[in-house]
């Protein structure tokens, strides 16, 4: 403990998380960086602040599956709690799922929907994935290593060196990737440091939890319309909605009264216009001159705009509103 830079009086009162693991020399050295290295300390403080966004929902999902709540720090090491994070290898979301792994655990990843970026759905899948890795490998150290380097690659290393001890594999020259040897102690040290009696700085308060409600709509609506109905800013509505979300489901922050009823009751004012119906009927006259039209659109009319009464029907400023309006 002295070599790691931890005072004996501080080491004696550390509170261990509900996550069974061995306190090894490598682990103690990583934990000591939070006291001796200013960059590591600032990084841990930043992650602790950002954890407030999704910590409550993550802990609820973990507790519902009977898993240790300290597993949420895997998301800190993976994405720093950023749902829009994306790696050069193709992993994305809070838990940095690869597309094939995400599909195998029930997440939709296609042209229209990418549930890896959805905090709620991706957390449920990550809980199942971590539970499966722990059941197969028998320890959290190996489960975290498999999460980082891949289950097949870890099995190949275990069979090659005939050992399933993480510390032994980490000390061998080609036992584990260099990134994995630091990845696992980082998660465990974060779990220890974030405990109430850990090494975290209590002057840095976590961010307020992100709350939302799912709003079902009967037609495609811009986020501006949903934000207006929910009396929230468009930026807040956009930040609550994961990228590449299904068109029929949108999210709005939950600090305002529910707008589900008003949005559902509105319904479509008219059927979506076909391409042919965008032209004026035969014999129509221009609003500006009152003369029969010979061109579409009139030469004097400005560019297309949307009808204020029916947002989905494009019109031209020189023409009367569409018949459906």
In short:
With 325 residues, this protein is mainly alpha-helical. The protein is built from 14 helices and four strands.
Keywords:
mainly alpha; Lysozyme; two-stranded antiparallel sheet; disordered N terminus; 2 domains; 325 residues; 4 strands; single chain
What does this structure look like?
The protein is mainly alpha-helical and 325 residues long. It has 2 domains: 8-193, Lysozyme (Orthogonal Bundle); 212-266, no CATH class. The protein has 14 helices and 4 strands. The strands form 2 sheets. The protein has a two-stranded antiparallel ribbon. Strands 3-4 form a two-stranded antiparallel sheet. It is globular. It starts with 7 loop residues before the first helix and ends in a 9-residue tail after the last strand. Residues 1-5, 256-278 and 293-325 have low confidence and may be disordered.
Strand count, sense and closure of the main sheet? 2 strands, antiparallel
Give the strand tally: 4
Shape: globular
Q: Oligomeric status of the shown chains? A: single chain
**Estimated share of beta-strand residues:** under 5%
**What is the level-2 CATH architecture name of the largest domain?**
Orthogonal Bundle
The N- and C-terminal alpha carbons lie at a distance of: 76 Å
Rg: 27 Å
- Strand arrangement, major sheet: 1-2
Write the element-wise H/E pattern from the N-terminal end onward. HHHHHHHHHHHEHHEHEE
Number of helices: 14
CATH class of the largest domain: Mainly Alpha
How many domain units? Answer: 2
Q: What level of helicity do the residues show?
A: 40-55%
């Amino acid at each position: 403990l002295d070599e790691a830079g931890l005072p004996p009086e501080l080491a004696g009162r550390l509170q261990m998380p509900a996550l069974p693991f061995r306190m090894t020399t490598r682990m103690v050295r990583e934990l000591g960086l939070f006291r001796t290295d200013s960059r590591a300390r600032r990084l841990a403080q930043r992650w602790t602040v950002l954890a407030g966004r999704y910590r409550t929902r993550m802990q609820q999902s973990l507790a519902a599956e009977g898993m240790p709540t300290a597993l949420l720090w895997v998301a800190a090491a993976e994405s720093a709690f950023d749902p829009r994070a994306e790696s050069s290898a193709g992993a994305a979301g809070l838990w940095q799922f690869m597309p094939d792994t995400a599909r195998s655990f029930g997440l939709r990843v296609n042209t229209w929907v990418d549930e890896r970026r959805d905090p709620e759905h991706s957390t449920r899948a990550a809980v199942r994935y971590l539970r499966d890795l722990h059941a197969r490998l028998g320890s959290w150290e190996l489960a975290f290593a498999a999460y980082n380097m891949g289950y097949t690659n870890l099995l190949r290393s275990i069979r090659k060196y005939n050992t399933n001890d993480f510390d032994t594999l980490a000390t061998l020259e080609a036992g584990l990737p260099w990134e994995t040897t630091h990845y696992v102690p980082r998660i465990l040290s974060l779990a220890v440091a974030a405990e109430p009696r850990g090494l975290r700085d209590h002057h840095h308060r976590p961010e307020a939890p992100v709350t939302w409600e799912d709003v079902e709509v009967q037609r495609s609506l811009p986020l501006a319309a949903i934000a207006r109905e929910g009396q929230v800013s468009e930026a807040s509505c956009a930040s609550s909605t994961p990228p590449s979300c299904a068109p029929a489901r949108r999210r709005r922050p939950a600090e305002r009264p529910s707008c589900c009823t008003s949005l559902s009751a509105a319904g479509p004012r008219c059927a979506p216009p076909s391409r042919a119906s965008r032209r004026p009927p035969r014999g129509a006259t221009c609003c500006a001159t009152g003369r029969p039209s010979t061109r579409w659109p009139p030469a004097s009319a400005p560019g297309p705009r949307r009808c204020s009464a029916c947002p989905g029907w494009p019109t031209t400023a020189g023409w009367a509103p569409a018949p459906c309006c």
